[in-house]
Amino acid sequence: MIKLKGVRIGDLEIKVPIIQGGMGIGISLWRLAGAVAAQGGIGVISAAQPGFLKESFYKEPLKANLEALADNIRKAKEVSNGGIIGVNIMRVATNYAQYVQCCVESGADVIISGAGLPLELPELLKDTKVKFAPIVSSLRATQLMFKRWDKKFGRVSDFLVIEGPKAGGHLGFTPEEAENLTNEEYDKEVVKIVEYVNSFEEKYGHIPVFFAGGVYDRSDIDHYISLGCSGVQMATRFVGTQECDAADAYKQAYIEAKKEDVMIVKSPVGLPGRAIRNNFAKERETSRQPVEKCFGCIEHCNPATTHYCISRALMQAALGEKENSLLFCGENVWRVDKITTVKEIFDELNG
């Protein structure tokens, strides 16, 4: 097997062009991110309620989250062997700018931002060394951001993540598209996005594009590189590792999942999501779960009317409550059949 070609993002060298996708709440924190970075990929910490295990979280969630995020970045850097540590911040997150500033002050190398368009991110990262990428699912979204950034800031993003319809967690598609759009059909959109991004190369230099969504083995990686991508982002595969920060019961839910257990759910974030079918997911199809306490996690969420509290549902999952929780996953979760290590996955994917 030929080894994968490294990628440069400005002054950062990614030795193995694999980004570990950010998974929240509490699924990808310092242990997983640090282990991935140590193998030459980009390890990514999720900024979604990272302080949920702190005693102060229920009284001062923002303060607890910022303290925990800074601590996770520091710990990940310590075990990364000089590797690249990133943070995934949802654009719909309340106090978005404060999370970005925390990343800058704490030494994060990159910020990856989806669940909305991070239009102000170039301004927030002005005069810093932090690299950034939006997560996009359409050529239209890419064009909107690049045109605005080019005109307003005289720059575009340092790299880009395309997230296809088979990804886990929140999706930039309609529920029907997430269910029915095939990878083969979506490949056409991938090629268009890559070509559009490449059109800025003469002005800004090479802008690497990474594909996410249903990437599981080396053949998947080779396929997206053949479409013009520089590498891939993978998340679901890394849950089944010793280093994953989730509870063992969460990992076991992945191992036990069958292909028919994967479903599309409605999220309070306002986007559809992909998750494992359990009691919670089935009940939310027909009934609302009243919000007992609001953690102020996302913009435009009304606790009096929202279908359920996504923070509570994801925290329960991270703690190992397999039935009364939201178990986000990718389309290929059913292929995870054992607990392995990050190193073993990299050895398999990179020869």
List keywords for this structure.
351 residues; alpha/beta; TIM Barrel; 2 domains; 8-stranded parallel sheet; 3-stranded antiparallel sheet; 37% helix; 15% strand; globular
Structure, described:
With 351 residues, this protein is an alpha/beta fold. The chain has two domains: 7-245 and 337-350, Aldolase class I (TIM Barrel, Alpha-Beta Barrel), CATH 3.20.20; 248-334, no CATH class. Helix content is 37%, strand content 15%. The protein contains 14 helices and 13 strands. The chain has helices at residues 30-38, 61-79, 96-106, 121-124, 139-153, 175-180, 183-198, 201-204, 218-226, 236-239, 248-256, 279-284, 310-318, 342-350, and strands spanning 7-9, 12-14, 18-20, 42-46, 84-88, 110-113, 131-136, 160-163, 169-170, 209-212, 231-234, 262-266, 272-276. It has an eight-stranded parallel beta sheet. A hairpin with a 2-residue loop joins strand 1 (7-9) and strand 2. Helix 1 packs parallel to helix 2 (61-79). The longest helix has 19 residues, at 61-79. The protein is globular, with a radius of gyration of 19 Å. It starts with 6 loop residues before the first strand and ends with a helix. The mean pLDDT is 93. GO terms for molecular function: nitronate monooxygenase activity. It holds the Pfam family NMO. It comes from Anaerotignum neopropionicum. InterPro entries: Aldolase_TIM, NMO. This is Probable nitronate monooxygenase.
Question: What's a concise summary of this model?
Answer:
By secondary structure, the chain is α/β, with parallel strands linked by helices. 37% of the residues lie in helices and 15% in strands.
